[in-house]
């Protein structure tokens, strides 16, 4: 499903950083944070050791007393049922109540009509996911958030480089979270980043990222002056974690980011090929539709097998696997159907029929930068053969 985006120059930069012996979080991390914030059209970036950690750090900061009118235990946060586990676990870990909302069967993002109906007296935030790199309708979501005075957290882990109305995802809400994992649009091997326009939120995330000490805060000098009897290297002003990235991660990221747009172009070209080649099978498949005003960056190429198709999703995934073509579920499907949700308090807003359909009938094939013309043709030809065999078999059974 994935191939490395790193090349020799990133490997050399990583080795050079290791040889310098300055490997723990430092100047390279700060430089890359600003580099990425500039790319995302935000003022600040806080790098962490994974996209999941970025999700955790942002919720921790929004739930922290350092944040004015912060989220509190028992507050509700609207989240898409079609999502990933660590989109939701930080809410539960901070005693917030996830409210599961269905997706739109066409673009796979939050169903906007169901989203508004899900708002209740305890609702304080929307945590959205730009599913598979397809940007949400941010005009509608931000209008809804302003109307109800809600925080907006963007999970952009699948959507690096995506835009809505020519504006990067992650720059609309209070905070946006991205992943630099191996299989994502660019990679620092492991890594993530939270971007925001809010200085106070940035400072809080910096403090929470490293044990709760003030050392990484821009206003560290203020705390040194306030607490002169405490060693200035170890002034703990809040609770915290250890979610720090390394200088090695940042060194790789600094070289990866300039390549992002070209890598996205490759993904979009592959997706366009598949959409055109598979258009003849629209009676059997539903394909994700790009959001109007949005630029889709195709984390993968998702497909839903329609109920009237002469095969089921398990048939096609098994066939593709036999021909050395990997597939994946679409994210985690409907997270509300996973057994872990029986353990924790949550609310389901209405029916989740579209998320259920995607979970039961959906699959994704690779759409990364290294899917070349030969690989595209191979996948398309194998799919052609599979469908031809299914149609012939169905005709024989009907005869």
Q: What labels describe this entry?
A:
399 residues, alpha/beta, Aspartate Aminotransferase, domain 2, Aspartate Aminotransferase, domain 1, eight-stranded mixed sheet, four-stranded antiparallel sheet, 39% helix, globular
Can you characterise this structure?
The chain is of the alpha/beta class and 399 residues long. The chain folds into 2 domains: 8-259, Aspartate Aminotransferase, domain 2 (3-Layer(aba) Sandwich); 260-398, Aspartate Aminotransferase, domain 1, CATH 3.90.1150.10. 39% of the residues lie in helices and 15% in strands. It is built from 13 helices and 15 strands. An 8-stranded mixed sheet has the order 1-9-8-5-4-2-3-14, with helices on both faces. The two termini are 39 Å apart.
Annotate the secondary structure layout.
Layout: H1 8-20, H2 27-39, E1 44-48, H3 51-62, E2 76-80, H4 85-93, E3 97-101, H5 112-118, E4 123-129, H6 138-148, E5 151-155, E6 163-164, E7 167-168, E8 175-179, E9 192-196, H7 199-209, H8 220-226, H9 247-256, H10 260-277, E10 285-287, E11 294-295, E12 301-305, H11 313-322, E13 327-328, E14 347-348, H12 353-361, E15 362-365, H13 373-398
Parallel strand pairs: 2-3, 2-4, 3-14, 4-5, 5-8
Antiparallel strand pairs: 1-9, 6-7, 6-11, 8-9, 10-12, 12-15, 13-15
Helix pairs in contact: 1-9, 2-9, 3-4, 3-7
């Amino acid at each position: 499903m994935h191939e490395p985006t790193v090349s020799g120059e990133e490997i050399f930069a990583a080795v050079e950083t290791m040889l310098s012996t300055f490997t723990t979080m430092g100047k390279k991390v700060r430089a890359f944070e600003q580099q990425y914030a500039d790319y995302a059209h935000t003022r600040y970036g806080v790098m962490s050791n994974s996209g999941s950690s970025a999700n955790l750090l942002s919720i921790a900061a929004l739930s922290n007393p350092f944040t004015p009118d912060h989220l509190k235990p028992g507050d509700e946060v609207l989240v898409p049922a079609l999502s990933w586990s660590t989109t939701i676990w930080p809410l539960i870990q901070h005693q917030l109540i996830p409210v599961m909302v269905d997706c739109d069967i066409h673009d796979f993002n939050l169903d906007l009509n169901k989203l508004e109906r899900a708002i209740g007296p305890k609702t304080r935030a929307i945590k959205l996911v730009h599913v598979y790199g397809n940007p949400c309708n941010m005009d509608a979501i931000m209008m809804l958030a302003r109307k109800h005075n809600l925080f907006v957290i963007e999970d952009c882990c699948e959507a690096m480089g995506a835009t809505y109305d020519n504006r990067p995802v992650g720059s609309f809400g209070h905070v946006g979270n991205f992943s630099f994992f191996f299989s994502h649009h660019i990679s620092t091997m492991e890594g993530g980043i939270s971007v925001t326009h809010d200085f106070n939120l940035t400072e809080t995330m910096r403090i929470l990222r490293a044990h709760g000490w003030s050392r990484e805060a821009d206003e560290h000098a203020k705390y040194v002056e306030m607490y002169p009897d405490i060693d200035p290297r170890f002034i703990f002003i809040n609770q915290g974690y250890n979610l720090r990235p390394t200088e090695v991660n940042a060194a790789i990221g600094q070289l990866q980011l300039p390549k992002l747009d070209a890598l996205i172009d490759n993904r979009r070209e592959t997706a366009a090929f598949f959409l055109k080649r598979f258009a003849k099978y629209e009676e059997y498949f539903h394909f994700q539709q790009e959001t109007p005003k949005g630029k889709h960056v195709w984390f993968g190429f998702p497909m839903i097998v329609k109920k009237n198709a002469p095969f089921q999703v398990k048939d096609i995934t098994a066939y593709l696997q036999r021909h050395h073509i990997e597939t994946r579920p679409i994210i985690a499907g409907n997270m509300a159907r996973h057994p872990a949700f029986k353990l924790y308090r949550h609310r389901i807003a209405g029916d989740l029929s579209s998320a259920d359909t995607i979970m039961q009938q959906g699959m994704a094939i690779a759409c990364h930068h290294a899917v070349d013309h030969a690989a595209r043709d191979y996948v398309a030809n194998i799919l052609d053969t599979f469908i031809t065999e299914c149609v012939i078999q169905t005709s024989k059974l009907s005869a």
